[in-house]
Amino acid sequence: VNVDDLLRDTLREQAAEQPPAGPGFADWVLAVRRRRRTRRLVTVVAAAVAVAAVAVGVPLLDSGKRTSVRRAWWAGTGRAPTRTSRRRAS
Amino acid sequence: MDAEGLEGFRDFVDNRSSALLKTAVLLSGGDRHAGEDLLQNALAKAAGRWQRIDEPEAYVRQILYRQQVSRWRLKWRRRELTVAEPPEGARADADASSAAELRVVMREALSRLTARQRTVLVLRYFEDLPEADVARLLGCSVGTVRSTTHRSLARLRVLAPELAALGPADAEFRSSRDHSPVEVRP
Q1: Does A15 touch chain B (CB under 8 A)?
Q2: Closest partner residue to B21 among A16, A21, A27, by Cβ?
Q3: Residue B167: its chain A contacts at CB < 8 A?
């Protein structure tokens, strides 16, 4: 006997020893598939909600910040700044 | 899937799941639970496009084989089964003279191969498929199938030294003839 024959015999013997699949195997597979689809759907919805929350929330948080506004040097003087006065001010 | 497709799927699973499970268990190295898991995944994938499949059995078998050697699955599963004792020590006291004992030794060695090596051997020696068909099913070249077969048989001999006393496998014999040194004349 060579390795080929022994390997073939071993695999056939091992396969022959296997008891048949249970009667409800199809329903079991379908239930698993249903469960996976539900889980996938929940994951997609959760990811979409998270993305939307970030997209809406980040600009809202950013708009709440106070920006420092400096009063213009010529405000209240009653005259618009000329090119010369603007250069002097800078 | 509509009611008719569901009925067809149930019929297919009832009629063919035992045969498919045998292959799945062999691919999993004799682990019944891993085999059931493999078959369940393959059937769940096939159920998704059941009404568009022309040959359900060929389709499910291809998923089984490809899934077993897929990179993602290999990442999750350990590539080799690790045992506490080294293989030589495990069988040192056993008299491996009879064919039945050699088959036990072979079975242990098979369970310790990588998933890819075992898949190629199952396709070549259990399903009796030619190298070209194995290559098509696994999505690789014929050369890869040939080299994997050769390496797997060599690995079996390392894992089970009792097999060294047996004659060379045909695949190894052909392979050694193909790579025989050629006399080079100046």
Answers
A1: yes
A2: A21
A3: 1-3
Does A52 lie at the interface with B, CB-CB under 8 angstroms? no
Give the pTM: 0.70
Q: Among partner residues B13, B102, B122, which is closest to A25 by beta-carbon distance? A: B13
Residues forming beta bridges with residue B167, ordered by sequence position: A2
Q: Model confidence over B22-79: pLDDT tens digits?
A: 999 999 988 889 999 999 999 999 988 888 888 999 999 999 999 988 866 655 555 5
The answer to whether B25 contacts A30, with C-beta atoms less than 8 Å apart, is no
Looking at this predicted complex, what is its ipTM? 0.75
